[in-house]
From TrEMBL:
Gene: lepA
Membrane topology: Peripheral membrane protein
Protein's cellular compartments: Cell membrane
InterPro entries: EF-4, EFG_III/V, EFG_V-like, EFTu-like_2, LepA_C_sf, LepA_CTD, LepA_IV, P-loop_NTPase
Tr-type G domain boundaries: 3-183
N-terminal signal peptide: none
CDD domains assigned: EF4_II (cd03699), EF4_III (cd16260), LepA (cd01890), lepA_C (cd03709)
Gene Ontology molecular functions: GTP binding; GTPase activity; ribosome binding; translation elongation factor activity
Source organism (scientific name): Blattabacterium cuenoti STAT
GO biological process, one term: positive regulation of translation
Organism domain of life: Bacteria
Name of the protein this chain belongs to: Elongation factor 4
Amino acid sequence: MIHDIRNFCIIAHIDHGKSTLADRLLEITKTISEKKGDQLLDDMDLEKERGITIKSHAVQMEYKYNNKIYTLNLIDTPGHVDFSYEVSRSIAACEGAILVVDCTKSIQAQTISNLSLALKNNLIIIPVLNKIDLFDSISEDVMKEIMELVGCKIEDIIPVSAKNGLGINRVLNQIITRIPSPKGDPKAPLQAIIFDSLYNPFRGIEIFIRIKNGFIRKGQKLRFMSTGKVYSAYEIGILKLKRISKNQINTGDVGYIVSGIKNANEVRVGDTITDNQIPAKKAIQKFKEFKPMVFASIYPVDSDRYEELRSSIEKLKLNDASLSFKPESSPALGFGFHCGFLGFLHMEIVKDRLEREYDISVILTIPNVSYIVYMKNNQKVLINNPSDFPEMEKLKKVEEPYILVSIFTKDIYIGNIMSLCIEKRGIMVENHDYMVSRRIKIMYEMPLSEIVFDFYDKLKSVSNGYASFDYNFIGYRSSDLKKITVWINHEKIEPLSLLVHKTKVFFLAKKICKELSILIPKHQFSIPIQVSVSGRIIARETIKAFRKNVTDKCYGGDISRKRKLLEKQKKGKKKMRKIGKIEIPSSTFMTFLKVK
Ligand code: GDP
Ligand code: MG
């Protein structure tokens, strides 16, 4: 029975065509009857808008090969560097991976990082060259690069057009003939690994699992091995485009369980579920945990909604195991949460999801990395919030996290990219890797804080989109950092504090003052904006008091225009946050980032 199952994922660099290929597979296997539009697996609104896959999605298909029907479980994965956590979880649930390479772009940074994750997990790799409809003939260089990377023969590479459906049958045939069926013992005690979960307000928490050994029957009493809690599986099933309930799910299956669990803390991704009466002796080995690299605080725009924000973040965490948070408070912003994210994009997506899925407007403070501070009294502290930064006089030294950045590009952009890396305090590592067709890999050691902000956007623009990057944490190194403090109307605004390298202090202080003086609207009185370092003011701007009423613009007596203007003003107010006597747009804290 188990011989008829194939569990696989699709891995690729972003935009190389994973989601489009998944759509074609769903069509050919008649999992969907006809073309229903593009990117069926990207069901989160955000994914459609940003055109990227954020969450991994699982879907089951059936395919007939040599007169036998096979069950194929496809797990779509995100390609962006921030989401390698999701990729690694998907990979843990598969035996094979389709490696998609865009023939116009060839191998890029995340092609390599995702491939190496797959190889580490001993997955069978099926290399696919996508978008061949864009070329009359396939470039030999690209083929060579793939062969070199995967270690395969030229005839193993399947040329396809995910857009037109060309070559897709061959991909399906290879999935069946080359990827092994899941191992596992249907008669052994139940072991199922939780790879994802989702909060459903009506049904309680839905748990997504892959069964390694044994089976689950509807109504069975299940034990969660890390907590010891026992629940009844009152609904179980498999995942097609919708959930399909079943009476039994078996070894090798990817499926879901609903047990009416309401408490988010009881469901842990990576936990093993077993039978309560005949439990497995051991849990399945957990996934490698990813440490948060970027920190920022989230506060409700409306401070009365703190409790609501708390329950929303808890629910979101169910579906995003890589998010971490703890309560904090600040004199300027009240009660909120200090959160840890995998990267900058991850942070933005958490904010967007809170606002859309949970309908709660939030203020996100400036992100920062974590620092190791050595005090003169020989204490060593880890600090991931600039407001906790001790007085400069008490410090011996500060260390910040460094990463090794690998950048893939064409040789003509190398000059631009090198200047960008130098501006970001990068140090080149002396082993340029030339590949075929004038492509090159360069490596820099760089402070993580420098790429947290706009590195990705800048890299794209200086290379006309022909550069991709990936990074690994390499350790903490000492740095000459200063804490910049912002004062608005003589009030210290801790959430706007920043740690910056000493060479950038003056430049940034000036820019921050300028930017804030544009962002903060005029009030009835003038507002001084100041930036200080170690208690010394180093930059200053003043927002002049406004004299005119907004409605003064509508001379004459046009009442309706006047009303419209006032309404518009009221709407804008909702997104304002009062700090002392000053109304600050809640977006200030984000817009502010662009100055870095
Ligand atoms: P993902 O980020 O890997 O999921 O990539 P998508 O599936 O979203 O594809 C990225 C873009 O490439 C979309 O605009 C697709 O329409 C386009 N695309 C995907 N496959 C093909 C193909 O075979 N030929 C052409 N011409 N475009 C494709
Ligand atoms: Mg996609």
